[in-house]
Automatic annotation (TrEMBL):
Compartments, record wording: Membrane
Name this protein carries in UniProt: Carbonate dehydratase
Family annotation (SMART domains): Cation_ATPase_N
GO molecular function, one term: ATP binding
Domain of life: Bacteria
Membrane topology type: Multi-pass membrane protein
NCBIfam families in UniProt: ATPase_P-type
Transmembrane portions of the chain: 58-76, 82-98, 242-263, 269-302, 664-689, 695-716, 737-760, 772-792, 804-824, 836-854
Domain Cation-transporting P-type ATPase N-terminal: 5-78
GO cellular component: membrane
Signal peptide annotation: none
PANTHER family per record: CALCIUM-TRANSPORTING ATPASE (PTHR42861)
């Protein structure tokens, strides 16, 4: 059942060849064809193979240092050292490999959440199906912003154009129509076709699926669906870069240390070399890049659980730093569950009752609303369906509400559709030419001020007042109008001034309770929330009040915005929170104006024309349910539930990720310094090493990567949403951090030397003294971990002590490992350790407590000093 050159055949011929009808396939037929043709899917980009991923772990300075050291120790025939070093290399590579695998799996899971859906006719009913379920013969409904889900032969096109750059390289959208074109027309000129993967930029239409999956044009050239970007963000790159330079610096310093120790210190080369290798390994923060990546991956997963799907990883950083959120109203702040509650016609005012979208309910008082209902039902793209006694809408909920109303007012209404002017947020109305009983009528609905202007014989001031009054109640107001038509198409040029006004419909769309909470949360977090809506100023202000925006009293309309030039707009934009009757172009100007004021902006959008604003925003957010594919592709973040509360949740997670990165770094760098410094000092001062080289390798292997990793799983600290946003360009490596490294490094040196000398003074063997030092280092690292878990407040709370499951699992594992090397004879042989007496074990833990107390006191003083001069 393949079609040759569908573009050159008539639509009917294509339908016939695919044994399909204009009402689509029956659900059974579609299912059986799916068996035959397989899912409409392109092969995934081949990921990196496990082997390549494993080998890539060896591309880092630390591993080079270790491998070099292994060679040297082997030449010196120090086989135990060689074995330990190689074990460390393998261990490091394995951990990196597993972590990266987890991170990639998290991203792959996200990718599948972004699978597009398509509106199709099945058995004459409009239904929404997974893009992968399309089969040849399906009839697909398209509107501006849709991504074409398969190769389609157009059956109908109304002002349709598509952006086909991915296939033709042509960036100007191509106009489309249902008429056949020459058989030898090149791809870009086949106007009767829509190609899979291209974007509908304007208009609406219907198309017959003629090819799916790899048989589509894009499939044939091996094009790939654009998915989620890889795991690199500016921050990860910064970390990689930083870690690389730091490593090189450390290697250089180690070389100097080696030369110094050999030529000036007179140490024997073999033991000196091992000590220097130990220093280098201890100091290089090898876990940092891997832990950064895993922290981001965990953030991605946490956001996905809160219905915010990250498309571009840098957005994780951006969303955590936003200071303004510009949000749509309908469906984001409100439920987008609409109902017509009030109708005003020249005959009177009617109150409409009912439940949900059920097309039954009372209208008071009784009256003739048949013409009004007919227009409401026919100027409409939605469909109602009763599933399990519950009425649901396929399509726009506002249109669903109009259908339900029409059902209440007049019962079933049917007519053949001849022509359409699709709704466009720039002209704000929609018109449908329908024929019933030989009568052709153009039905129009849209924003009142727009539609009323097209009507004749209407008392404009009166009806403006009525619309205003409805809007003030928070109702969404639509005006309906009609005219008789003679031709088979709407005569677009003569519409103005020729319509007969039918009346106004007022629809409720209640605020989401969780959005009200989320707005309050954002305000507490120092984030200003602004509503940008295409709706009427009165309606917008009423909803803004109900939702709790900071300044609901001042409304700027699209017309106001047009009057302001950019500098004026930048002046006005900060204090105004409600923007009404805007078009998508205004969003771009608003983002730019807010950014000009130094703010970091999150912007939501759903339509194809919102794409530029989404791209420009610091965090572009698209709606997953009602958003167009065009908007999703431009966005950094997609909301799976279109809910404002999910934006607030994403901000919280974004802030948590940033904090956790900060914690990972604040733990790793001072710890690395603390491990290396005692050895360096001992070498310089010609003292016995408190920790041997092999022991340092051991500490690194068991503790650094594992303990640091626990911080990636930290939950949000209390008060995460009570702090003002961080500056977008705030660096991670701050003066505070440098001070922390110095402080912790010094405390490590003092404690380790203290314990070591105490042991020697008690007459313990060198092995035992070194074992005590090793355990001291690990205990300090654990206490440091608990300290770092709370950088904004005290660590002395039950929650802080209770920690997370990950923290305690890691600590138990590390403790068990320490007991093993301290008390198991084979490991004692390998690492040169000795059993530590119980009392000294307690002393080590006590040293950890003192270390913790000192750092905690320092933190309290630092935080106290910071809060006192005014509110931070
Ligand atoms: P938001 O930007 O918060 O989602 P919105 O959905 O009201 O708000 P638009 O979709 O731009 O924004 O709609 C602007 C106005 O156009 C609406 O207030 C309504 O009066 C009118 N309108 C919206 N959808 C339709 C439609 N399908 N047919 C006719 N008129 C419409």
């Amino acid at each position: 059942m393949t079609l040759t050159s569908p573009h050159s055949q008539t639509a009917q011929a294509c339908l016939d060849q695919l044994s399909a009808g204009p009402g689509g396939l029956s659900p059974e037929e579609a299912a059986s064809r799916l068996e035959t043709y397989g899912p409409n899917r392109l092969p995934e980009a081949a990921g990196r193979s496990a082997l390549v991923r494993f080998l890539s772990q060896f591309r880092n300075v630390l591993i080079y240092v270790l491998l070099g050291a292994a060679v040297v120790t082997a030449l010196l025939q120090h086989w135990v050292d060689t074995a330990v070093i190689l074990a460390v290399v393998a261990g490091n590579a394995m951990i990196g490999f597993l972590q990266e695998g987890k991170a990639e799996a998290a991203m792959a899971a996200i990718r599948s959440m972004l699978a597009p859906r398509a509106a199709v006719l099945r058995g004459g009913q409009r239904v929404s199906v997974d893009g992968t379920a399309l089969v040849p013969g399906d009839v697909v409904l398209l509107e501006a912003g849709d991504k074409v889900p398969a190769d389609l032969r157009l059956l109908q096109a109304h002002g349709l154009s598509a952006q086909e750059a991915i296939l033709t390289g042509e960036s100007v959208p191509a106009d489309k129509s249902a008429a056949p074109v020459a058989e030898d027309a090149p791809l870009g000129d086949r106007r009767s076709m829509l190609w899979s993967g291209t974007l509908v930029t304007q208009g609406s239409g219907r198309g017959l699926v003629v090819a799916t999956g790899t048989h589509t044009e894009i499939g044939r050239i091996g094009g790939l669906l654009s998915g989620v970007e890889t795991l690199k963000t500016p921050l990860v790159e910064q970390m990689d870069h930083f870690a690389r330079w730091l490593s090189l610096l450390i290697v250089l310093a180690a070389a100097i240390l080696l030369a110094w120790g050999y030529f000036l210190g007179g140490h024997p080369f073999a033991s000196l070399f091992m000590a220097v290798v130990g220093v280098a390994v201890a100091a290089i923060p090898e876990g940092l890049p891997a832990v950064t990546t895993i922290t981001l991956a965990i953030g991605v997963r946490a956001m996905a659980q809160r219905h915010a799907i990250i498309r571009r990883l840098p957005a994780i950083e951006a969303i955590g730093s936003v200071s303004v959120i510009c949000t749509d109203k309908t469906g984001t702040l409100t439920r987008n569950e609409m109902a017509v509650v009030s109708v005003e016609t020249p005959d009177g005012v009617f109150e409409v009752q009912g439940d949900g979208y059920a097309p039954s309910g009372a209208i008071q008082p009784r009256g003739d609303l048949s013409q009004f209902a007919r227009t409401a039902a026919l100027c409409n793209d939605a469909a109602l369906a009763c599933k399990g006694g519950h009425w649901i809408v396929e399509g726009d909920p506002m249109e669903g509400a109009l259908l339900a109303f029409a059902g209440k007012a007049a019962g079933g209404i049917d007519a053949g559709r001849l022509d359409v002017i699709p709704f466009d947020s720039r002209h704000r109305y929609m018109a449908v030419l329908a024929e019933a009983g030989g009568e052709r009528i153009t039905h129009v609905k849209g924003a009142p001020e727009r539609v009323m202007r097209m009507c004749h014989g209407i008392d404009l001031p009166h009806w403006h007042d009525r619309a205003e009054a409805m809007a003030k109640r928070g109702l969404r107001v639509l005006a309906l109008a009609m005219r008789h038509e003679t031709g088979p198409e709407i005569d677009r040029d003569s519409l103005d001034g020729s319509l007969t006004f039918l009346g106004l419909a007022g629809l409720i769309d209640p605020p989401r309770p969780e959005a009200i909470e989320a707005v309050a949360e954002c305000r507490a977090a120092g984030i200003r929330v602004k509503m940008i809506t295409g709706d009427h100023a009165g309606t917008a202000a009423a909803i803004a009040r109900q939702i709790g925006l900071e300044n609901p009293h001042r409304v700027l309309t699209g017309a106001d915005l047009d009057r302001l030039d950019d500098p004026q707009l930048a002046m006005e934009v900060v204090d105004c929170d409600v923007f009404a009757r805007t078009s998508p172009e205004h969003k771009l100007r608003l983002v730019a104006a807010l950014q000009a004021r130094g703010l970091s902006v999150a912007m939501t959008g759903d339509g194809v024309n919102d794409a530029p604003a989404l791209k420009r925003a610091d965090a572009g957010i698209a709606m997953g349910l009602k958003g167009s594919e065009a908007a999703k592709e431009a966005a950094d973040l997609v909301l799976a539930d279109d809910n404002f509360a999910s934006i607030a949740a994403a901000v919280r997670e974004g802030r948590t990720v940033w904090d956790n990165l900060k914690k990972v770094i604040s733990w790793t760098l001072p710890t690395s310094a603390g491990q290396a410094l005692p050895i360096i000092l001992a070498l310089f001062l010609g003292l016995a090493l408190p920790v041997t080289a092999v022991q340092v390798l051991w500490i690194n292997l068991v503790s650094s990567v594992t303990l640091g990793l626990a911080l990636a799983f930290e939950p949000s600290e209390p008060g995460t949403m009570a702090r003002p946003p961080r500056r977008r360009d705030a660096p991670l490596l701050t003066g505070d951090l440098v001070w922390h490294i110095v402080l912790v490094g010094s405390l490590f040196v003092a404690t380790v030397f203290g314990m070591f000398n105490y042991a020697l003074a008690r007459g313990y063997s060198l092995e035992l003294a070194q074992t005590i030092s090793v355990n001291t280092v690990v205990v300090l690292e654990i206490f440091h971990l608990f300290f770092i878990r709370n950088i904004y407040g005290t660590s002395l709370t039950w929650a802080a002590v209770k920690g997370t499951k990950v923290v305690w699992t890691v600590i138990l594992a590390v403790t068990a490992a320490q007991f093993a090397v301290t008390y198991l004879p084979p490991l004692q042989m390998l690492l040169g350790t000795d059993a530590v007496p119980f009392a000294d074990g307690l002393l080590i833990v006590a040293a950890g407590v003192v270390f913790f107390a000192l750092t905690e006191i320092e933190k309290q003083i630092r935080l106290g000093l910071r809060v006192r001069p005014g509110k931070a």
